[in-house]
Design a protein that fits this description.
Blueprint: H1 2-39, H2 49-54, E1 60-63, E2 69-70, E3 75-78, E4 84-89, E5 93-96, H3 100-103, E6 109-113, E7 117-122, E8 131-141, E9 144-159, E10 173-178, E11 184-186, E12 196-201, E13 206-207, E14 215-218, E15 222-225, E16 234-241, E17 249-250, E18 253-258, E19 267-272, E20 276-277, E21 283-291, E22 298-302, E23 312-322, E24 326-337, E25 346-354, E26 357-367
Parallel strand pairs: 3-9, 10-18, 20-26
Antiparallel strand pairs: 1-2, 1-4, 4-7, 5-8, 6-7, 8-9, 11-15, 12-13, 12-16, 14-15, 16-17, 16-18, 19-21, 21-24, 22-25, 23-24, 25-26
Length: 369
């Protein structure tokens, strides 16, 4: 009986020990399961640097004194005379700035590409340098390069000058063409966005109502006429009121001309001074194009004596008024044939070309005999 009791107690002790070992083992395994995920690095997707710096962040900075930097906003007002330094982040950068700095090869402007950024420096800036400054990343595939529209930054810089309220222009009398299909701008820009500007017509003398809809004003562009019409023709000027002086300042004068010529390939005609000529005579053939005032037209000729007979060709253009005072550009090419020979008889073909296309016209010159 005692032996059986001892044997039962021994089995019970073994079960308890085995249960405790399994429980410890299970706890250890559970602990290991909790630790393992902690040791494994879970990497979440990160936004690439280019994505952060393209649309959401400007790549343009202004260099200030003592190595400080400023990211300019849409506009910036600076004092004239103090050197301007801009930097644009990237290994291949393009720049844009007021165009006259290129026109006059202004040596005050310098641009240098460094390893990680491009640097623009303008020394002794003046009120005339007021305008938009922008930069962009240039992407190249072999020899073909293009502007990266997603990596572009710009700022409009005013060089405020109490004596020069308007941005100076090299033209003292500017012609502006009014077209019914697009807005027209009278570009009297100011050097300080706080300056008050008004628009005036010379004849009849009056101040133009600027209501913000039909005519509006932007200090970075000037007065904008949304829907030009013939009634807007005439001579205009802008007047700026200084915040420090009582005498207002007058801008460049602007002549507004109304244009109503459809856009497209040249509208050309051709006419010979005489369609029937005799040997030894002189005649000319005139090729004429009527079109938009600012639309350049090129001429080329084919004629019976091409490459064998000397001729003289004169190209010219001028502005004319047609209809109800509408302004049109007349472009002409005149070919003169002197001392007519048999080879000169035949068809004269004039090819006219503009940015929209080309037009061919022809006429025939015959012998009198």
């Amino acid at each position: 009986m005692k032996l059986w009791l001892f044997f039962t107690l021994a089995l019970l002790w073994l079960e308890v020990q085995n249960g405790m070992c399994q429980q410890v083992k299970r706890k250890k395994e559970a602990g290991e399961n909790r630790i393992r995920p902690g040791r494994k690095r879970v990497r979440y997707p990160k936004v690439k640097e280019k994505e952060v710096g393209s649309k959401g962040q400007s790549i343009l900075t202004q260099v200030l004194d003592k190595g400080h930097f400023l990211r300019p906003g849409e506009s910036l007002s600076l004092s004239p005379g103090k050197t301007l330094e801009l930097r644009c982040k990237g290994t291949n950068i393009g720049w844009a700035y007021p165009s006259y700095l290129d026109t006059f090869n202004d040596n005050r402007l310098s641009i240098k590409q460094h390893e990680r950024y491009s640097q623009l420096i303008l020394t002794t800036p003046s009120a005339a340098d007021t305008g938009e400054y922008s930069c962009w990343v240039v992407l190249c595939d072999g020899e073909e390069c293009s502007k990266d529209g997603d990596s572009t930054s710009s700022t409009y810089i005013y060089f405020t000058d109490k004596d020069e309220l308007f941005v100076l222009s090299a033209i003292h009398f500017e012609i502006i063409f009014l077209r019914p299909d697009k807005p027209a701008t009278i570009p009297c820009r100011v050097t300080n966005p706080k300056i008050k500007v008004s628009l005036h017509r010379e004849v009849p003398a009056e101040e133009i109502d600027v209501n913000g809809t039909q005519i509006s004003y932007s200090p970075t562009k000037g007065f904008i006429i949304q829907n030009p019409s013939p009634e807007h023709k005439g001579a205009y000027y802008c007047k700026a009121n200084s915040t420090t002086k009582t005498t207002p300042q007058i801008s460049t004068k602007y002549q507004l001309l109304y244009v109503e010529v459809p856009s497209g390939p040249p509208f050309a005609t051709i006419k010979a001074s005489s369609e029937v000529v005799s040997g030894g005579d002189i005649f000319n053939v005139t090729c004429t194009v009527l079109g938009e005032p600012e639309m350049n037209v090129s001429f080329s000729w084919r004629y019976p004596g091409l490459g064998q007979r000397p001729v003289s060709i004169h190209d010219s253009w001028r502005l004319i008024n047609r209809g109800m005072g509408h302004t049109t550009r007349i472009s002409q090419s005149v070919m003169i044939v002197d001392d007519v020979e048999t080879i000169d008889y035949g068809k004269y073909i004039c090819t006219t070309k503009n940015k929209y296309g080309e037009t061919l016209v022809a006429t025939t010159v015959m012998s009198h005999e």
